[in-house]
Every structure is written in structure tokens, then in C-alpha cells.
Write a structure and sequence with these properties.
This protein is an alpha+beta fold. The protein has two helices and five strands. The protein has helices at about 5-10, 15-35, and strands spanning about 35-40, 45-55, 60-65, 80, 85-90. The strands form two sheets. It has a three-stranded antiparallel beta sheet with strand order 1-2-3. It has a two-stranded antiparallel sheet with strand order 4-5. The longest helix is centred in the N-terminal third of the chain and has 20 residues, at about 15-35.
Length: about 90
């Protein structure tokens, strides 16, 4: 299971349902990787970007926009907080 049980319970979410979503996203990310794509999220939307294909300013080629769902960015890091639950980077 990919879902974090204690954190799901603290959020009032069903860990099994969260796990299903995480696994679907992971499956899509693996499919993208096989095509040489990176799944990127930030600023309220996501995109698929071609790895290694950048312009003279280092900007990757965007091959698809993903405007559904909830997207956020950051470095993606997380770890245990004072309450013992895993939390992402703060403001």
C-alpha cells in the first residue's frame, strides 16, 4: 500500500481509496517515463514534458497540458513533523 495510514486517518480519508488514487497516478507516471516524458505539476495545472529536449534557455518541450484535478508544485519533499505525521514543505 502506498497510502500513509496514520496521515489518511488524521485527514479523515479512507486509506484504501487514497491508495487506489496513488497507484493510478504512479501507473500513469511509469507510462509517461517509458515515452521519455516527465509528469510536472505546479501553479494550478500539470503538464507532460519531454525529458532532455530543451531549448537554448533550458526549457523543456511541453507535449500536453493537464488542466483537470488539483496541482501544486515545490520540491516534493516531506518528512515527519512534531506531531509524528508526514508533512510537506511549508510556506
Amino acid at each position: 500500500m502506498m497510502a500513509l495510514d496514520d496521515e489518511c486517518r488524521a485527514a479523515g480519508l479512507d486509506p484504501v481509496e487514497v491508495d487506489r488514487i496513488a497507484r493510478r497516478i504512479a501507473r500513469a507516471a511509469r507510462d509517461a517515463q517509458r515515452l521519455g516524458l516527465t509528469v510536472f505539476g505546479g501553479s494550478g495545472h500539470g503538464s507532460l514534458r519531454l525529458c532532455g529536449n530543451t531549448d537554448d534557455r533550458g526549457r523543456p518541450l511541453i507535449v500536453a497540458g493537464i488542466d483537470a484535478g488539483s496541482w501544486d508544485g515545490g520540491d516534493g519533499g516531506y518528512g515527519p513533523a512534531n506531531d509524528g505525521l508526514n508533512r510537506g514543505e511549508g510556506i
